[in-house]
Each structure stands twice: as structure tokens, then as C-alpha cells.
Amino acid sequence: MDFSVINDNIEFLMLGLMRSFQLAFFTIILSLIIACFIAIGRVSSRRSIRYPSAIFVNLLRSNPLILIVFWFFFLVPLITGKTLPEFHTVLIAFVVFFAAYFAEIVRSGIQSVGSSQVKAALSTGLTYSQSMRLIVLPQALRNMLPALVTECVIVFQGTTIAYVIGMREFLHSTSLVAERTVRPVELYLFAAFVYLVICFAGTRLALFLEKK
Amino acid sequence: MNYEFDWPLLLEEPNWGWVIEGVANTIQLSLMAWGFALVLGVLIGAIRMSKSRLLRFIGTTYVEIFRNIPLLVQLFLWFFVFPLLLPDDLMRAWNRLDGVPFFTALIGLSLFTAARIAEQIRSGISSIPKGQFLAAYSTGLTEVQTFRHVIIPYAFRVMIPAIASEFLTIFKNSALTLTIGVAEVTGAAKTIEAYTFRGIEAYSAASLTYMLTTASVVIFMGWLEHALRIPGLIGKR
């Protein structure tokens, strides 16, 4: 094995890694915002809100991310009438997909707060939205923080799927160098190591938050 | 949006054959991988709670490695790297095998999912408040009795949603194996789309497969979760 091939191509590889980070970052921010609305919709007492949110979440959660990406690559040009840059198309697919997962985390955070808390809040004269905002969500946020961090790690791992449609994220850059230099062993081991270090840091953070 | 639907297209050959083969491969692959992963996962989960420090270390290292490397990267490692690391004659034998993509996918999926299941078991047990243990011990129960009568019944119920979603994850994760050439259902849909430009019909067929499979599991698990819920937490209405 000759790991100097990594060093020779480090700039190209790091460019890919940056692209992976970008995709993960924007996915997390945008899908988390959407997720909060959907989660509140999921625990709403109104059926007209609860059912559509449940359908959205279950529809996406029962499909693999890779299939959702294929769907959006077919649908986005069909709907908009033009081809968006692949980064944008992938981002849209990722945001829609992960919003469903984040929504479930936020929902289970809300539901982890004891029902007596809601009853107590309502009995002091707070409205439903006030008791959600002031009593339930702050406690829910604390409870769901570890799961949120874990999901962020999953989003970062998920960025590898952009490989399939040829976006130059880290795995794709790795495979390009592997093909050109005919050194797949070194390159894929390196990629695995990089992902391992980053995701290990993330899961340790989640564990630390869980213990706190 | 300007799109003419052509649903009967799916029933034409070779499309129908691809769909059927894809569905069969997806189900076969996920069921087999699920079986292996469950056995291995429980085993690793158990050695992570063992008294031996070495066993605990092995269990933890396994989980951290297989959980923190993305599945797609793991599949590539098994597919591109693993055969190259074998001794020459073994490598030739491996390459001569029929269905190398399928075996590779099976190994990759099982080992990846085992780590996740082991982790669910650990976090299920550790989600139990310390007071439960202390209360159980103070009533005079032994460690084994505490686990059997107090902790496991509680942990089991806490773990159901997580384990259920784990069962579903493996069905969906099997879609990734199209990258190493397994003809599973998402790959079949992609092929049909590439040949006919009928993306909506092709992807609908794939989505339907996943949704029908997961819907049945979700409904069953939802019923189970409701039946075993712990009073005092906000449950499903």
C-alpha cells in the first residue's frame, strides 16, 4: 500500500469533502425548520392538520433516500421546465426527505413531556399554543437534543448518496481519484477513515448530551 | 407540467420482468440480512454489557466502526477493496463466484445493521432510570431477577419504536446495493426510467413496493406500541 496517492490528490479530495459538508449543512438547517411545523401538526388535535402531516411523514419515511433522489431528479425538471444545478436538486430531495425524519424526532420530543405538564399549563389559563411554546417545546428540546445530533450525523452519512447522481461530494471525488490512479484500496480506506472520524465525533457529542 | 401517463407500460416486457426480479431481490436480500443482523446485533449488544472489559471493548469498537462509516462506503469497501486484500487464489475463487454483488450486499447490510441493533439494545437498557435498579435491588431482587422482572419489560417497551424502525431501515437501505450491481427494485425502476423516460410510472412501482412493505410493519408495530405503552407519557390518541 502506498498512501502518498492521498497526499498527491488531497486538494481535490478536500474540495469534495467541503461539498459534502455544504450539502449536509443546508439540509439540516432547512429540513429542521420545516420539521418543527410538521411535528406540531402531527400532535395537533385537528384531523385536517394531523392527517396531512402524518401522510407526509409516513410517505417519505417509507421510501429509501436514493429513490427520493431519483424521484426529484425526474420531477424537478418536469415541473419547473428546466434543469436545476444538480446540487440544488439533491438539496431539495434531501430537505424534503430529512424533514420527515426530523419531524419525528421533534414529535417524540414533544410527546416525551408528560401529559400532566400540558394539563397543568392549560389549567393555569395558558392557550394551547402558549403551553406548547412556553412549557412543552423548551423541555422537548432538551430531551431531543441527542437524537437531533445523531440525525445530523445520519444526514452527513446520507450525503454519500449524492454520489449516485454524480455530484462531486467526498465519496465521488474519492472514486474518481481511485479510478484515475488505480489505487482503490488506499483511497476507499482513506474515505472510510475520514467518515469514521467525523461521524464518531458526532456520535460522541450525542452521547455526551444524552448523559447530561 | 406536461406528462402523459402510460401505466400499462409497466406490464410490458422486459419492464415487468425487471420489476418482479427487483421486488424478489429486495425482499430476499433484506430478509436474509435482517436475520443475520438480528443475531449478530443481539450478540454484540450482550457482550457490550458483559463484565469483561475486553469483550466490552470489542463490542464498542465494532459498533463505532460500523455505525460511523456510511453504508455506501462500507458497500464499496466490501466490493472494491475486500477482494483485493485476499490472497491471490482466494481472490480468483471469489471473482468466479456467481452473484458476487448479492453476497457483498448481504455482508455489508448485515454488518452495518448489526451495529445499529446492538446500539438500540444498549440505549434501550441505559434509558432506564437508575432508581429502577436501586428500587429493585432494595426489594431484595438479584441482578438477574432485576433484569428479568423490572428492566427488560420496561426496556422492551421503550425499544419497540426504535427496533421497529430498524426493521424498516434494512428494507430501505437495500436500495443502496444498486450501486454495486444488485438488481433490486430501485435499480429496476431506474433502468426502466432510463430506457423509457417514464419516471413516474417506474418510480411509483418501486415506491409502492417499499410503502406496502413498510405500511404493514408500521401498522403492526403501531398496534403493538399502543398495546404496550407506558402510562404517564403523552401517547398516540
Q: Report the largest inter-chain contact.
A: A-B, 49 and 49 residues
Largest pleated sheet of chain A:
none
- Estimate nothing, just give the exact number of structural domains of chain B: 1
By secondary-structure content and strand pairing, the structural class of chain B works out as mainly alpha
Q: What's the CATH C level of chain A?
A: Mainly Alpha
What would you call the structural class of chain A? mainly alpha
**What is the approximate shape of chain B?**
flat
Strand content of chain A: under 5%
The overall pLDDT average of chain B reads: 85
The helicity of chain A comes to over 70%
Q: What integer is the average pLDDT of chain A?
A: 90
Secondary-structure element sequence of chain A? HHHHHHHHH
CATH architecture group name of chain A: Orthogonal Bundle
Provide a compact summary of the structure.
Chain A is mainly α and 212 residues long. Chain A has helices at residues 4-8, 10-42, 47-61, 65-80, 86-112, 115-123, 128-158, 170-181, 184-211. Chain A is 83% helix and 0% strand.
